[in-house]
Every structure is written in structure tokens, then in C-alpha cells.
Specification:
The chain is an alpha/beta fold. Helices cover about 35% and strands about 30% of the residues.
């Protein structure tokens, strides 16, 4: 078995008749955090959703754990251990955080006790309903909920978008802790300081294409800023 846990090759994805991504190729190694960055509307979310089967693939191939999952249903991919956390957190609004967690728990290393013990800010929310959570709190709970399914990899969509710096810092701390646990992650975001704080490698996306890639600490800042327009 190779060290590559996720391999995406020449992925083209559509929303209806509109093609959104064009020949996207990227890979994530086991235990690695990779960031897919770019401005709003360039195809980051479409890429993540097409990887897990939520958006139609026009062409390309997706392999997870050395298995071709290109044509698999989203629930099958999830059962294999590839979990998608949407930008709104994927939290049921009429259930408490504890009840949301109970729907996700799968036997393994990551338990509610682990989450509450490691991320005290999540423990404080456990009796609130999803509809009572702020946007940042939903992101924290959504990541924790995905974790409780004990996946081998998380795809996290826009975890820092529109959030206060203090919440972004908390999310970065959570991701850093999960990185220490050797959990593989692919994160779509456009907050450059956040990305540089958590990612091992970066893929830059613009107009549905991958424009550049490299180690987070080595990719020239001007190349990144050019495509983020910062």
C-alpha cells in the first residue's frame, strides 16, 4: 500500500450543464494536511463535494486508500473512512450537540470523551441545540462530529470563512491537534494566515484549475497572494 491516501487525477465536475472544475489533480499523503486555496467561486467546494460523490463528475479518477471510488455513492465513500465536513458544519439544528454527536459515533480512537477532554470549547456547547450555535460554533461542532465517525481522512470546507479571529485560532488549534494524531485532512479555505498555520502543502485554485502547488513553507508568497488577490 502506498503512502498516498487520496489521489485525484484530472477531475472535471459539473453543476447541471455548467462545468466548474477542469482537470484538477492533487494528492494527500497519510497523516498530511493539504490546503486547497483560492478566492470564492473558483471551484474549491465543488472539488471537495465531487471527491465524495456529492457533485457530478464529468471526467477524472478519485482513489482513496488505493481503491477507485470515482463512481461510488457518497454513503459508501463515507463508510470507507472519507468524511466531508461542509462549510455550515453539517449540524442538525433541532438536536443538541450531544445528540448530534450520538448520531455520528463509531467505535474507535475518537470518542465524545476525547472531544470534550481535548477541546473544552466544544464541551461547553454540548447541551445547546444546533440552531442556538453561532457560525463559528457550528464549525467547531461539525469538525468534532466528523471526527467521532473515526474517519481515516477529513475533507473540511471553508472552516475559517467569515469567523472572528479568536474562533479561527481555536479551529487552527483543533486541526493542529488532529495533525498530531496523524489524521489526514484536505482543507478548502482562503484565509492565508490560517492556511499557513495548519497546512503541510498547498494547492492554489483559480477559475476551476490548479495553478500552482508546493510545500506551505516553500511556495512563494507572491504566487499565493496573486491568486487570492490579497
Amino acid at each position: 500500500m502506498s503512502d498516498t491516501i487520496l489521489s485525484v487525477k484530472n477531475l472535471c465536475a459539473n453543476y447541471g450543464k455548467s462545468q466548474i472544475t477542469f482537470g484538477v489533480s492533487l494528492e494527500v499523503e497519510r497523516g498530511e494536511v493539504v490546503a486547497l486555496i483560492g478566492r470564492n467561486g473558483v471551484g474549491k467546494t465543488t472539488t471537495l463535494r465531487s471527491i465524495v460523490g456529492l457533485v457530478e463528475k464529468r471526467a477524472g479518477r478519485v482513489e482513496f486508500r488505493d481503491r477507485d471510488v470515482t463512481a461510488m455513492k457518497p454513503y459508501t465513500i463515507a463508510r470507507m473512512g472519507l468524511l466531508y465536513v461542509p462549510d455550515a458544519g453539517g449540524v442538525f439544528p433541532n438536536l443538541t450537540v450531544e445528540e448530534n454527536f450520538r448520531l455520528s459515533v463509531k467505535e474507535g480512537h475518537f470518542t465524545p470523551e476525547y472531544v470534550y477532554g481535548t477541546f473544552p470549547q466544544v464541551k461547553e456547547l454540548r447541551r445547546r441545540r444546533g440552531e442556538q450555535l453561532s457560525g463559528g460554533e457550528r464549525r467547531l461542532v461539525g469538525i468534532s462530529r466528523g471526527l467521532l465517525a473515526n474517519p481515516e481522512m477529513l475533507l473540511i470546507d471553508e472552516p475559517s470563512e467569515g469567523l472572528a479571529p479568536s474562533i479561527v485560532k481555536e479551529i487552527a488549534q483543533i486541526i493542529t491537534r488532529l495533525k498530531e494524531e496523524k489524521l489526514s485532512m484536505l482543507i478548502a479555505d482562503q484565509n492565508l494566515p490560517f492556511v499557513l498555520a495548519v497546512a503541510d502543502r498547498i494547492f492554489i485554485m483559480d477559475n476551476g484549475h490548479i495553478k500552482a502547488s508546493g510545500a506551505a513553507k516553500e511556495l512563494p508568497r507572491e504566487v499565493i497572494e496573486k491568486h487570492l488577490a490579497v
